[in-house]
Write a structure and sequence with these properties.
The chain is an all-beta fold. It is built from three helices and 47 strands.
């Protein structure tokens, strides 16, 4: 049968009810392979969930897909809602009265159980003793008494990992396991969607508005792509609802919508402005795509982005007096009154504005970061753990401190000293913030790691500095991705001018493992408009697969290849003959 890697499997003796081990494990988690033989033997003596123990035999997996779930206690009992942690530690998250509800975020692969608060008797949660959060966006989970329903079998769908590569001459689909191109849609191809047709890219230059050459445009590599790509000029894509990819193409002023299952373009949106960056926002009652545009600051909003028959497009134009150079989605953390809020800031403006995503209006709440000596801010990272956001405070002269903003009060609660500005990235569960510094000839390339406090009133703690300079020399990192493992988070760092990745275990972040053979991003020193040592005007994007979570992909534009890394053993395979790969995003296909 088929199952998921994140689904635990149990075996029990039918005659005496004793629990059994599977391949020497309890519980058994399937390995990420296409076929596996499982040997059942050796009784396991204890209750697998653990009635009185504080540590369970179960372990949640640290996967990356966020799930909004509503637990409903459909029983006359008072019950505990219990999370089984990454190390097996049990934590009572909520005590639910009869027929009460509790809505919250969790992650794919996280395990939940429920018990009677008085007797300790196990309840059924989602029809099972142990509920595993699937890779979806939103679901309801019902808690019932064990005698009222039967255990449900696990779902049997498995996803095959794919990556979508957007290059200078079209769109590529790569099978991660085989490291091969399985589909190629060439530029200047006519794409037919229903009664409409359009040309995928076109052989012409982007009509760049004079106001559009912002720091954000340069920061993400679009300026260099415009000069080096002759046909397609892709903006930064985003996934929506675990099913569709929205990717902007600047030359045609279109946003293409791709179904990751069928691998087909299912819709395109023609705009009057140049789109270059896409954000996806999802909550219990709202799903949106926000598209940043060039020229006069504006956004294009796509409502109902997961329903191809019900898409609505709106323009948000009157934002010339707001810091609209960049946008950060502030996902609901249970701390703010509004569930649908974003923070907007600029690379050339010290103001931070709050945007209501339902009304499209900017609220009265603004924070002037110039009070803290900032000419502008950059590299924001938001932690859903406590509602704090970290950003670099850019100054013309002097250091570039890392400021920590409490988004509940919109006040800066702490300043972390740093020699140079950088981009901060939060782990999917909000526990860590990793800051990679911008290139600075007089500064160190070492990466800074903070652990986020669980309380909104406490500041984050600096736990270590990753010794990049001691490991790969004076080379500055370009991008970072978090990879969830049962033992905790690992991060992979890319360098656009090196043929290596750096892997760091956040539980021991002073130890760096180097993965070689991934190629370089820069074509050569003469053709490039920026120095080899820096990356401030071009990012080497890195992407972890969305479903299996075993593979990582990163482009090596100088060699027209994409490197695919198997994170089980850090082996590297190269997908060749991809013209100028700039953007990589995970797909996933049902088989």
């Amino acid at each position: 049968m088929y199952t998921y890697r994140s689904h635990p499997i149990l075996a029990r003796n039918k005659e005496n009810g004793h629990w059994l081990t599977m391949n020497g494990q309890f519980p058994f988690f399937p390995n990420p392979v296409w076929q596996e033989t499982i040997k059942v033997c050796d009784p396991y003596p204890d209750d697998p969930i653990g009635q009185s123990e504080t540590v369970s035999a179960f372990r949640s997996l640290a996967l990356m897909h966020k799930v909004y779930v509503r637990f409903v206690n459909f029983s006359p009992r008072v019950v505990h809602l219990i999370w089984l942690g990454l190390d097996g530690t049990t934590k009572v998250y909520h005590t639910m009265k009869p027929y009460a509800q509790k809505s919250m975020y969790t992650y794919e692969g996280h395990l939940w159980v429920s018990r009677d608060a008085r007797s300790g008797e196990n309840m059924l949660i989602g029809g099972r003793l142990v509920f595993t959060a699937p890779a979806t966006e939103y679901l309801d989970v019902v808690i019932t008494e064990a005698k009222t329903c039967h255990l449900k079998p696990p779902r049997v769908v498995i996803q095959r990992e794919t990556f979508f590569i957007f290059g200078c001459d079209g769109m590529y689909v790569v099978d991660a396991e085989q490291a091969q191109v399985t589909k190629f849609v060439k530029a200047n191809t006519t794409v037919v969607v229903g009664d409409d047709s359009s040309i995928l890219c076109r052989n012409s230059r982007v009509d760049m508005p004079s106001q559009g050459k912002t720091a954000d445009w340069k920061l993400n590599g679009f300026a260099e792509q415009t000069s080096s790509c002759h046909v397609c000029r892709w903006g930064q894509p985003a996934r929506a609802c675990n099913r569709f990819i929205y990717v902007p193409e600047m030359a045609t002023k279109r946003v293409y919508i791709i179904d990751v299952v069928t691998e087909e373009v299912v819709e395109s949106i023609q705009l009057d402005v140049v789109p270059y960056k896409v954000h996806f926002y999802h909550s219990k009652n709202l799903s949106q795509i926000w598209i940043q545009t060039l020229g006069i600051p504006s956004f294009v909003v796509v409502e109902n982005p997961c329903e191809m028959d019900d898409i609505e497009v709106a323009n948000v134009e009157d934002i010339s007096n707001t810091p609209a150079g960049h946008m950060s989605m502030l996902h609901h953390s249970g701390l703010r009154g509004s569930h649908n809020t974003a923070l907007v800031w600029s690379h050339s403006n010290p103001l931070i504005a709050e945007l209501n995503l339902q009304s499209y209006y900017f609220g009265q709440t603004e924070t002037d970061m110039s009070v803290y000596g900032c000419q502008s801010t950059t590299g924001w990272a938001f932690s859903s753990l406590n509602g704090h956001a970290l950003t670099s405070c850019y100054k013309k002269v002097g250091d570039c401190p890392l400021l920590e903003l409490n988004t509940l009060t919109m006040e800066v609660i702490h300043s972390n000293p740093m020699k140079t500005c950088g981009l901060s990235h939060a782990s999917p569960d909000g526990q860590y913030v990793v800051t990679i510094p911008f290139y600075n000839a007089s500064a160190s390339p070492d990466v800074v790691v903070h652990r986020v406090a669980t309380s909104s009133g406490e500041k984050s703690m600096h736990i270590c500095t990753v010794p990049i300079n001691d490991t790969v020399g004076n080379h500055f990192a370009s991008d970072v991705v978090f990879v969830g493992k049962p033992e905790g988070w690992k991060v992979y760092l890319t360098f656009k001018d090196l043929k290596v990745l750096a892997k760091v275990d956040l539980s021991d972040c002073r130890s760096v493992h180097v993965v070689g053979g991934v190629g370089r991003m820069i074509r050569n020193k003469r053709k490039s408009r920026i120095p080899l040592a820096g990356w401030a005007y071009q990012r080497r994007i890195t992407m972890v697969g969305q479903h299996v979570g075993q593979y990582l992909a990163t482009p090596a534009q100088s060699q027209d290849i994409v490197a695919v890394i198997d994170m089980n053993d850090d082996s590297v395979r190269l997908v060749k003959k991809i013209d100028g790969p700039y953007h990589v995003i995970g797909g996933g296909r049902a088989i």
